[in-house]
């Protein structure tokens, strides 16, 4: 059974930082594309960052502020979020993809507000 469990969300003031984690089990993690998405009410889920084999990709809105990384030994992917803005608020989802299969976590809420 594939499981993706996100953690690390919460309430933070503008300019603050959070680090999200996504622990993966039941899936061949090492060669998978790992991604972070976020969604706000009334909008489609959007890609924030992705990583495979050390190559990364970021949405323009988070470049220079967010960093995605992975620990293949611990089957975990991270999203370090710095200089957070109110518009970064949303539910953040982790996705694992490989060989045409996709799996999603349950999401973790990030709220950026003073």
Description:
By secondary structure, this protein is mainly beta. The protein is built from no helices and 11 strands.
Strand and helix order = EEEEEEEEEEE
What is the C-alpha radius of gyration, as a whole number of Å? 13 Å
Q: Helix/strand-derived class?
A: mainly beta
The share of residues in extended strands comes to over 45%
End-to-end Cα distance, whole Å, is 40 Å
Averaged pLDDT? 95
Q: Which blocks of ≥5 consecutive residues have pLDDT under 50?
A: none
Share in helix: under 10%
Please work out how many helical segments DSSP would assign. 0
Secondary structure: number of strands = 11
What coarse outline follows from CA principal-axis ratios? Answer: globular
Largest sheet: 7 strands, mixed
Which helices and strands occur, and which strands form pairs?
Layout: E1 3-7, E2 10-12, E3 18-25, E4 33-39, E5 46-52, E6 55-58, E7 66-71, E8 76-81, E9 90-98, E10 101-104, E11 108-112
Parallel strand pairs: 2-11
Antiparallel strand pairs: 1-3, 3-8, 4-5, 4-9, 5-6, 7-8, 9-10, 9-11
Summarize the structure.
This protein is mostly beta strands and 114 residues long. The protein has no helices and eleven strands.
């Amino acid at each position: 059974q594939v499981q993706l469990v996100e953690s690390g969300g919460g309430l933070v003031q503008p300019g603050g930082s959070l680090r999200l984690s996504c622990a993966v089990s039941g899936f061949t993690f090492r060669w998978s594309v790992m991604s972070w998405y976020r969604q706000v009410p009334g909008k489609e889920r959007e890609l924030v960052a992705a990583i495979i084999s050390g190559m990364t990709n970021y949405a323009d809105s988070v470049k220079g502020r967010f960093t995605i990384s992975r620990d293949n030994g611990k089957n975990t992917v991270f999203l370090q979020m710095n200089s957070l803005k109110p518009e970064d608020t949303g539910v953040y989802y982790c996705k694992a993809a490989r060989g045409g299969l996709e799996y999603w976590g349950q999401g973790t809420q990030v709220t950026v507000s003073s």
